[in-house]
Amino acid sequence: MNLFSSITEESFSYLVNDYGFSEPVATDGSWKTTFLYVNDQIGIEIELNYRDMDTFIFMRKLEEGNVTETQDHDQPVRKQLEDIINVEPLKSKGDSTTIEQFEKGITKKSALLKNNLDKILNTGVKVFKK
After folding, report:
1. N or C: less crowded end of the chain, CB within 10 Å?
2. pTM, two decimal places
3. Domain-by-domain residue ranges, the chain?
4. Partner residues linked to 67 by β-bridges
5. pLDDT of 40 strictly over 90
6. What is the pLDDT of residue 89?
7. Model confidence pLDDT, tens digit, residues 43-81
8. Distance from C-alpha of 103 to C-alpha of 97, rounded to nearest angstrom
9. CA 102 – CA 92 distance, rounded (Å)
10. CB atoms inside a 10 Å sphere around CB 83
11. Which of these, 2, 43, 53, lies nearest to 21 by C-alpha position?
């Protein structure tokens, strides 16, 4: 596990400890690592994008308890957190981002999700139309 993965799992541990999400499933890909957390309502995908030196958070649609991979009638199966809460995305400086800035970006995105998660889960905000 690399330093960024450790910081990510630590920063988002509240998903497991406080909200009952599953332990994250980490997947390494080309230029990125993703962490998928799932509960009975929704999946949360954290993407560490090493090309952009940025962190992205996506809400993932579930069907029968599993993450949906295919769109149904132009309905997205994944939405970016900032689009859901209607704020301007925090952007990194791309390849001029320092390691410290990348680490700080992970914790900032974690705080953004934590500050809005109750609203997303409990107040009827519909992430995905039925």
Report:
1. C
2. 0.85
3. 3-122
4. 62
5. no
6. 77
7. 899 999 998 899 999 998 777 666 666 656 566 678 889
8. 10
9. 8
10. 13
11. 43
